[in-house]
Design goal:
Blueprint lengths: L2 H22 L8 H23 L10 H27 L1
Helix pairs in contact: 1-2, 1-3, 2-3
Length: 93
């Protein structure tokens, strides 16, 4: 897989992870598709980091794995929950 294929894969996995995180977390999140992709990509990094801390696995074990996709979704849920908590604090002032 070349560089373009890797970038497209990251964008698609980011979109899926971000969209699923937005569906799982209740409430209204006013985000564009670009922000949803960014949420998923950041969630992938968070999920990958947590997976490495918990299980000692890294990207050397394979780029696209089911556990990696699940970790991306979990990471995106964590990032979205933190984003909504920080955004909610600022809106109350």
């Amino acid at each position: 897989m070349g560089v373009i294929g890797t970038i497209i894969t990251v964008i698609v996995v980011g979109l899926i992870a971000g969209a699923l995180a937005r569906l799982i977390i209740p409430g209204r999140q006013s985000m564009s598709i670009g922000m949803t992709i960014l949420l998923g990509v950041i969630g992938s990094f968070v999920g990958g980091f947590l997976g490495f801390l918990l299980f000692g696995k890294d990207a050397g074990d394979g780029f696209l794995q089911p556990a990696g996709i699940i970790g991306s979704i979990i990471g995106a849920i964590i990032v979205l929950a933190i984003y909504l908590a920080v955004k909610g604090r600022g809106a109350r002032r």
